[in-house]
Design goal:
The chain is mostly helical and 338 residues long. The protein is built from 18 helices and no strands. The chain is globular, with a radius of gyration of 20 Å.
Amino acid sequence: MPSIRKTIFAIPLRALTWLGDQGTRAVAAIAFIAVAVPPLGALLRPYVTEAIFLLLCISFMRVDLTALYGHLRRPALVAAATAWTTIGVPLIVGLTAHATGLSDSSPGLALALMLQGMASPMMAAPALAALMGLDATLVLVTLVTSTALVPFTASLFASLFLGGMLSISPLTLGLKLLGILAASLLAATVIRRLFGAEAIQRHKRPIDGINIVILLVFASAVMGDVATDFLAAPLFTIGVALLAFAVYFTLLAVTTLIFRRVGHERAFAIGLMVSQRNLGLMLAATAGALPATTWLYFALTQFPIHLAPYLLTPIARRLTARANISATAATGGTTSSS
């Protein structure tokens, strides 16, 4: 009987391990699967909040506390990156939306961009950074500090820029974000206590597989209507998709440029984190009560979010290799001069 149970559990475990090993390829494939199978989106849409909650739990569960404390002892870079992603980005987005008149001409699109700007980085950002060979610890620490602040900063910017565009008050938005984050952190802490950090690290590959499955649930729920929207209004849908790509790569490029003095590899890691916004958290906080244009933009942002890590991995690995060579040369130079 125990051997039968082992066999039953071994099959899904092997499948999840294989899926976790696919890395950025699997993440990229998710966007196309979500669009290609609309019934999956209709089936999974009621579970968006649960999917976001599980993604948050897994990310908090895998926090390397030793590495976290190490980076917090040198807080200048983390503080600068946190300030940029939680204050700089939403402030620029909000001012741009108002200066261009987008808030009046297309309030649904303005709401989408503002919610994107106010969102904290995606909880999967450290895992994606690690898959790309970047400094995942720096991304993780900045993610934790940004996520801790987002209930307060999102409430502030919602009251400044959104006016009556949201179906809930800015204070309610902040409280809901705080509740979701606190509950997921508590659940993750309980899981770490029950199973231990070593067991979580040992099962990293199948946990990566579970993460990809949950990402598929979220992407399918959000992207289920993309094909229908495209057939109904192809030019508008293409325009919104181009905007989603433009915003993603602008955030990546500008952030990398701003932080280039700390090294191109680390700047690129921060840029990746800032461009990967946690729109799911905003969907969960607003209970999905958003205009159709906002939903469409959120759906189309999944393409750059899922495709960029796969496309940018060669660049990330070149930057990492260059940083390693520079570090080795510096160490060698110090040794020889001493």
